[in-house]
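Dear Dr. H.,

I hope your travels went smoothly. While you were away I took the liberty of generating a structure for the chain from your last submission, since the lab meeting agenda had it listed for discussion. I wanted you to have the full record in hand beforehand rather than looking at slides cold. The sequence, exactly as received, is reproduced here:
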Amino acid sequence: MFYQSSLLLVVSWFLFFVFCLRWTRSKKSPVDYPPAVPGLPVFGNLHQLGSLPHRSLRALAEKHGPVMVVRLGRLPTVVVSSPAAAQEVLKTRDLAFASRPDSSITDRLFYRSQELAFGKYGEAWRQMRRIGVLHLLSQKQVHSFRKVREEEAAALVARIRAAAGPVNLSDMMIDFTSDLICRVALGRTYADAKGGGSQLRALFGEFSEIMGLFPVRDCIPWLGWIDWLSGLDGRARKIGLELDALLEKVIAEHRHRRKLAAKIDANDMDLVDVLLSLGDRDDDASSSNISLTMDNIKGLILDMIIAGTDTTKATLEWAMVELIRRPEEMAKVQEEIRRVAGPRGEEIREEALKGMEQLKAVLKETLRLHPPGPLLLPRESMESTELQNYRIPKGTRLFINIWAIARDPALWDKAEEFLPERFLGDSDAGAATLDFRYLPFGAGRRSCPGAGFAMASLEVVLANLLYHFDWELPHGMSAEEMDMDEVFGLVVQKKSSVILQGRPFEA
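The corresponding predicted structure, in token form, is as follows:
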């Protein structure tokens, strides 16, 4: 009897201890999973994304909160729409959210995602990040391509002068960006053959469009046959083969050049030269403690080409559209550019850009209203973690809706208006990047390593366009008539082309 009483007492105390321990831990642990948006069986919330997911997700966040879960078929996906949550993902818990989810499209087009943009987080990815930051896109490397940027900006100005009438700026800008990136990354343009420019434009445009799609097989595997039936598989295969053929041609040309030259001067090296010098040309073995396979090299080259073409073109388009719709802002920035540059009568040199604060503000405001990647690239949690006191299981996908954050009226005065002045001087908006209200290039481990090159390119070409021409809408068209519709893809772009009349300015 005494033994039974003692055993009961011990068990009671043990259960009490376990209860207290679990209660204490529960007080310290997250409250629950993020609120889930109600959806359909099997399909989840796919039908609610629409053609412009960043806008649809903002509308859902207004109802369900700044941290919510949408289900893309079988895939639970967290969507973040506040600076505080974005800061936690990109800074406080950056390592936990540093990986990328699986994607059949990126695996097919980016060499099984063995590159920088879509590669899984790990030692191989960290090595490529170091290569990107130190060897490909360092401040020194960006500066070394200054002459190329200036020459391509001058060539764009010459083409507009030669047109002597309304011009399709969209086509001219994609020519500018593709020529610039090809020269920097590949050593020369690949638009010099008959029809080469239009073919390259079409290829990059198709690539961007397909990268903005959600393959059914990723969301609902047993319905993967729909991707074949819809033609998505065929399109992806065709684009992949065409891009690989281009990269094979580029690498073969560079290897031939390296064989002919005993040593290539560092000042004459493009990004492919740098990558080939880091990797081994014959057996993909390591070189200088850096191991790069041919798939790594091709993937990194593709990263540079794709990241630098449509993003730059889209930002230039939106900047010109916003300025043409607000003549007073156009006048301010043109007065500054022409005053700082002086009566040169030639292309604007990059050293003159340092004093053009209004120009920089115009570009920052353009990127606030029209970030090229409004949802950034998706992340995946590498471990079970927390976010704003919610539980986030390992393997959860996550999007950050930087477009919604940058247009939140609670965070920005006159959030939907184009007001470059908000980025001038010591205004509160100047610290927006630090408080995670302004994230066009992301932040943390997965931030865009090409931000410096992108801004240098944008500044020099926009300065040249605004210095050399007074712009107006053609055929008496009014600003209110301009089509501002977007099209979603890897980069969100203006749906219709920008047609403007540029009248040469005489200093």
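Two observations you may find useful: The first helix runs from residue 2 to 28. Residues 1-30, 280-288 have pLDDT under 50 and may be disordered.

With kind regards,
E. W.
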